């Protein structure tokens, strides 16, 4: 199969982990006989540096002309004083591409169980999916600043809530048939609209058990009893915060991937973590979140399930063989660099091809 993929490495550790996705895709291309046409463009701080803007027109055009987009990370202290923030480019990209449903799977497995600072018996059965609304809410409302008064508005239209919640119900149907909708309906009007919409839609999904949790309660329950959850659906900012919290269940934000989707097969795929300025340029970053984002692209945008599973398997085997980056908190295993872990994953994809 021929596919065109836009590569947006971005800033900080973005380019370091992007190498992992590219090398893994090249190995998949060879093993399964596909043709991936990959083109790299700047975004975020690197867009500001090269074109004076965090989302250059050519970058956006190339993304629109591709079958899928892979993004590393944007941002960093280097652009703090600049009139435009690198993050603006990422938000504009998500909005322009209309990828409103952001899937953030959090699944524990044997390789991860000793990594979390939480007790093993609490985290071991974690298998949840956060569906985060990605193109609305407080991120995209009007922002004003007049003297000592600042304002960010949180606006949701019913259609924005409905389309994301519907996708979450569909995912729950394919999984353990449980949906937790997270809001702050005791305080926010937008959350009351959110909850009403979920209640309305739940009538169409009577085979799915639906519950509503206030976000503060959900934040507690997520680390107290993570196996309570199957699919969590929530608005943009709550989803952002809860997903970083959920990464603690696996021990590192470096391993969490994401897929941002819309109605057709197109998608934007990026790790949940940021540009990690504290470790950037040192070959220390964990490339797993980026590599798993590429695996999600193979699955969701290209329907290449076997290829996606081959990536996941190679990564797990590399972890199980003891190759772990420094963020994976455990003394037992040898710590390798970002590029060494990438090599180990690529080697396992190729080796499987030989033994198959
Ligand atoms: P961060 O996710 O970059 O880092 C948080 C912590 O996790 C740091 O200690 C970092 O070293 C560690 N970490 C992150 N990714 C890692 C990886 N792959 N391997 C090992 N350790 C990893 O969050 P932050 O420090 O709050 O933000 C830094 C910058 O990144 C900011 O400018 C922020 O806006 C941006 N950011 C971008 C994205 C994105 O592009 N999607 C996401 C989050 C944050
Ligand atoms: C994420 C990031 C972004 C967000 C930032 C960089 C704008 O934190 O993808 O989780 O808040 O959506
Ligand atoms: Mn975030």
How many domains would you count in the coordinates? 2
Name of the CATH homologous superfamily of the largest domain = Isopropylmalate Dehydrogenase
CATH C-level of the largest domain: Alpha Beta
- What is the overall pLDDT average? 96
CATH architecture of the largest domain, by name, is 3-Layer(aba) Sandwich
Roughly what fraction of the amino acids lie in strands?
15-25%
Q: How many helix segments? A: 12
Describe the global form. globular
Query: What is the alpha-carbon Rg in Å?
Result: 20 Å
Biggest β-sheet, characterized?
10 strands, mixed
Catalytic activity: (2R,3S)-3-isopropylmalate + NAD(+) = 4-methyl-2-oxopentanoate + CO2 + NADH
Domain Isopropylmalate dehydrogenase-like: 4-345
GO cellular component, one term: cytosol
Pathway: Amino-acid biosynthesis; L-leucine biosynthesis; L-leucine from 3-methyl-2-oxobutanoate: step 3/4
Task: Walk me through what this model shows.
- With 356 residues, this protein is α/β, with parallel strands linked by helices.
- The chain folds into two domains: 1-105 and 277-356, Isopropylmalate Dehydrogenase; 116-250, Isopropylmalate Dehydrogenase.
- Helix content is 43%, strand content 18%.
- It has twelve helices and twelve strands.
- Strands 2-1-3-12-11-4-5-10-8-9 form a ten-stranded mixed beta sheet, with helices on both faces. Strands 6-7 form a two-stranded antiparallel ribbon.
- Helix 10 packs antiparallel against helix 11.
- The chain is globular.
- Pfam families: Iso_dh.
- NAD(+) binds at residues 274-286.
- Its EC number is 1.1.1.85.
- Mg(2+) binds at residues 216, 240, 244.
